[in-house]
Design a protein that fits this description.
Layout lengths: L2 E2 L1 E6 L2 E13 L4 H8 L5 E3 L4 E3 L5 E6 L2 E6 L2 E2 L4 H10 L3 H12 L3 E10 L9 H9 L2 E9 L5 H7 L7 E2 L2
Length: 170
């Protein structure tokens, strides 16, 4: 099956699509170490102490509190959210798993952000076994739902996964 940046799921009453990105935040783990261990090219890297910036590059007040690393994740076309998460766990290397556990154990976070886009109610279940494996790896899951009727679909689609890292008052 082809690999894409999003997947559309149409089964039974479900008709949704989703995108996913991985977010890593930690006060001291170097983003270059994250890139090397996860073997993913980051879409965004923000380092602790750097001046905060708007998406267009303009300056904001304050500096980042911690390092933030973000990469878009590839999704096999036709996979649903549960299949995507299971494949994500199944394909992690021992180095990647050790790093995500260390980040989680030392005050950082590793989160899979999933943006779900649907025109109506949709549902899916993530098996306990998948959730357990994600937890053991130190990886949390964030689900954001974007419905067409709330007027946010186009803007939300552009911004999905672009959560701003914390800042210092400096």
């Amino acid at each position: 099956m082809p690999v894409r940046s999003e997947s559309r799921v149409t089964a039974g009453l479900n008709d949704y699509r989703f995108v996913a990105s991985l977010h890593v935040q930690h006060p001291s783990v170097d983003p270059n170490d994250v890139t090397a261990a996860l073997k993913l090219n980051p879409k965004s890297v923000k380092r602790r102490g750097e001046r905060r910036r708007k998406p267009d590059g303009g300056l904001l007040s304050g500096n980042y509190d911690e390092n933030h690393w973000r990469a878009n994740l590839e999704i096999v076309a036709g996979h649903n959210v549960s299949e995507f998460l299971q494949k994500l766990i199944d394909t992690q290397t021992p180095d990647a798993m050790a790093l995500t556990r260390r980040i989680d154990d030392t005050g950082g976070s590793v989160s899979v952000f999933i943006g779900v886009f649907a025109d109506r109610l949709c549902d899916f279940e993530i098996p306990a076994s998948t959730l357990r494996l994600l937890g053991e790896a130190g990886i949390s899951v964030r689900l954001d739902y974007y419905g067409a009727c709330n007027g946010q679909t186009s803007d939300a689609e552009k911004r999905s996964g672009q959560r701003e890292p914390p800042m210092t008052g400096n």
